[in-house]
Amino acid sequence: MEPDSADLSPATVAVHLGREPREPGAQVGAPLVLTSTYIADGPVNYARVGNPTWSAFEEAVGALEGGDALSFGSGLAAVAAALSLVPVGGLVVAPSEGYNGTVAALSDQAQAGRLRMRWLPDVTDTEAVIAALDGADLLWLESPTNPLLEVADLAALLAAASARGILTVVDNTFATPLRQRPLELGADLVVVSATKHLAGHSDVLLGVCVTPDSERGRALSERLLRHRTINGAIPGPMETWLALRGLRTFPLRFERAEANAAALAERLRTHPAVEVVRYPGLGSIIAIDVVGGAQGAERVAGTTQLWVHSTSLGGVESQIERRRRQPGEPLRVPENLLRLSVGIEDVEDLWRDLSAALDGA
Ligand SMILES: *Cc1c(COP(=O)(O)O)cnc(C)c1O
Q: How far apart (Å, rounded) are the C-alpha atoms in residues 247 and 317?
């Protein structure tokens, strides 16, 4: 018998979905299929169109987000696919403090005349966001935002946009389907960088688009699949296989990382070298503003021994970075902001290392 994911909790879904039907002799592990083409007259004739390893990963991620998933070569490839849904000259409403790659993609397309932008200075101002929806073709949301960790009222914003017939996309990379399922809140499309929490081992880049199981959702999924196929925005089977292997432990890892983050956020609030702690009370990402400006922040990131000084997030290892060292980072992100991606190590080891680096600031 196959498990029915609707009755199962995420921890079980992550372990059991995306496997072969249970028949005597069937493999228990998902297949890693390395082929560029298939014998003629089957359901898929060429591997830019489909691959069984992608399908296994997509089945598991889709079940977690509550929709149908399509995998892409990176999170930004999934973002590009989502943006391809906007008609030429269409108006996009999006947070100016969103993920810098998404902001760059939108800015470039606006500059090229492919679409028009209306930037949102503050996604927490629900009334202002709703007021900005006039004439929009797409509402792009990210919550919590990267790296300011501002939280939008997704339910209210998605309802307002849907009532106006506006296409809605939510980047769910930070909260993950364990803490927020935007499709249930009415989103048309969820975009995720699986590079981060879902794969979780800092060894692959991968993206996902998830659409609801409805007529509208299926129509969007067809357009996204066509975009993936004709633009070649496909993931590698090896990357997808690694991501599925990582996904098996995602709920376990996330729970541990989140517990670590909550404990560290609490202690950071009273550390004299920390001016501001941004932690929305969920997830494994914390942002702190430290004393000593940009230099102070660089010194902290450069002196930790356990925390890895690197960009990216959501891996098993704790990572630290001064975000403004990224050229495209929005200017509202303070110069002295450090983004902490809390991993699954022992929390006391993490605190000893981090507090020693902060003491030196
Ligand atoms: C990293 C990230 C992306 C882009 O994903 P890649 O896999 O790096 O291309 C998109 N959105 C958010 C919120 C991210 O953190």
A: 16
Atom of ligand 1 nearest to the CA of 206: 7
116 as an active site residue: the answer is no
Cis peptide before 144 (omega within 30 of 0): yes
Q: Which of 21, 47, 44 is nearest to 33 (CA)?
A: 47
d(CA 336, CA 49): 45
Question: Is the peptide bond preceding residue 24 cis, with omega within 30 degrees of 0?
Answer: no
3 pLDDT above the threshold of 80: no
Handedness of CA 216, 222, 228, 234 (dihedral sign): positive
C-alpha closest to that of 83 among 98, 68, 64: 98
The residue count of the chain comes to: 361
DSSP labels, 185-235: TT-SEEEEETTTTTT-SSS---EEEEE-SSHHHHHHHHHHHHHHHHHT-PP
Beta bridge partners of 277: 288
Element (H, E) at 288: strand 285-290
* 229-247 per-position pLDDT tens digit: 999 999 999 999 999 999 9
Q: Which of 99, 188, 256, 279 is catalytic?
A: 99
Catalytic: which of 153, 171, 188, 353?
171
- Residue pLDDT, tens place only, 258-293: 999 999 999 999 999 999 999 999 999 999 999 999
